[in-house]
Write a structure and sequence with these properties.
6-stranded antiparallel beta barrel, 40% strand, 24 strands, 7-stranded antiparallel sheet, single chain, Thrombin, subunit H
């Protein structure tokens, strides 16, 4: 009798482990994977997990690895069970062990420089960074009066209408004291909430960077540095942002219930798929943060009920997933990471 009871308990425990694994693991998942150049953490997680964004839940921190979130080609991802729970573990490969040594000055000329080691190969990104590189640190979403009240380019010393790197020009306006580096901006798109019609922000397109050379009251002489587009008379100047650029993302569901929609598709397309950028009509004030994941839904069609004599909207259908990578007060930028069918403006967004 005792053996039977023990067997029943063991079977119950195994069934609970199986249920927990089935809840998060993808059917047919591998037990291990050797990381390749060009992989992303999202792609690898998609091999193991039913929902790739849940990888932080089962990522086991290896005490012997300095930063287990940095994964390199040649590393091995392994699926193991720890206390009955599935865990992803990391085994370092040769690429991460092969390092370059760089001397770091101590600041004291009498002291010997310290040595910093870093892998020769770059770690793989969490998501495809090339898809969002242009929006990680360029451009801003500002309030209505921000650009209108900002200093502006008054004249070019060489009388050209379009400026290039190295050109010196005069600018006029109210300046921030002790600020010597400014971004050059031009008004872009106006973002309006499709539901409430509230203006959520004004796009300030970044064109380049300029440095202050001389000041004469409200007229400042500046030199244009690197440019991303043509700079012209009337373009506005804003102090550069001291903002940490996120390049490693940790996906998670929003801490609060979020319900919104896709406002626009960056690039003015009408329909897009995986790895395209969209704007979301929710931001910090709605509880969104960098790394938050939102499910994408197609609104159900409206059909006529011939028996009842009225019209009924069908349930929304989940078609994809996006991750927020840059957040402003009232809106955000998101990257589509999964799409069963084309994603469109107006598609609904909810917690995953």
């Amino acid at each position: 009798m005792r053996k039977i009871l023990i067997a029943v308990v063991v079977n119950l425990l195994l069934s609970q482990v199986s249920l927990a694994a089935n809840d998060i693991l993808k059917p047919g998942h591998p037990d291990r994977y050797l990381v390749q150049k060009g992989d992303t953490l999202w792609d690898i997680s998609s091999m193991f997990l039913a929902q790739a964004w849940r990888w932080p839940e089962i990522w086991r921190v290896n005490p012997e690895i300095e930063n287990p979130h940095l994964i390199y080609p040649g590393d091995e991802i392994m699926l193991r069970y720890v206390d009955g729970e599935p865990q992803l573990l990391l085994s370092r490969g040769d690429e991460a062990r092969t390092v370059r040594l760089t001397p770091i000055p101590n600041g004291d000329v009498k002291a010997s420089p310290r040595i910093r080691s870093e892998p020769l190969t770059s770690s793989i990104p969490a998501i495809p960074l090339d898809a969002i590189a242009g929006l990680l640190n360029a451009g801003r979403i500002v309030e209505a009066q921000t650009l209108e009240q900002a200093p502006y380019i008054l004249a070019n010393k060489s009388d050209r209408l379009i400026f290039g790197p190295g050109d010196e020009f005069y600018a006029r306006g109210e300046w921030v004291q002790d600020t010597t580096v400014y971004g050059v901006f031009r008004s872009g798109q106006i973002y309006q909430d499709p539901e409430t019609k509230e203006i959520l922000g004004y796009e300030a397109q970044e064109l380049g960077v300029a440095t202050v050379l001389e000041r004469d009251d409200n007229i400042v002489t500046m030199s244009l540095g690197a440019v991303k587009a043509d700079v012209r008379l009337g373009d506005r100047l804003l102090p550069t942002e001291e903002r940490r650029v996120e390049s490693m993302f940790y996906p998670a569901a929003p801490t609060a219930a979020v319900s919104g929609s896709i406002m626009t598709i960056v690039g003015n397309a009408t329909q897009v798929g995986k790895n395209h950028v969209v704007t979301v009509n929710r931001g910090v004030r709605s509880g969104l943060a960098v790394g938050n994941v939102l499910a994408i839904f197609k609104q159900g069609a409206i059909v006529r009920d011939k028996l009842a004599g009225d019209q009924v909207r069908m349930p929304a259908e989940r078609v994809g997933l996006l991750m927020v990578f840059r957040v402003f007060d009232k809106m955000s930028y998101g990257l589509v990471l999964e799409a069963k069918e084309p994603v469109s403006v107006g598609d609904l967004l909810q917690n995953p």
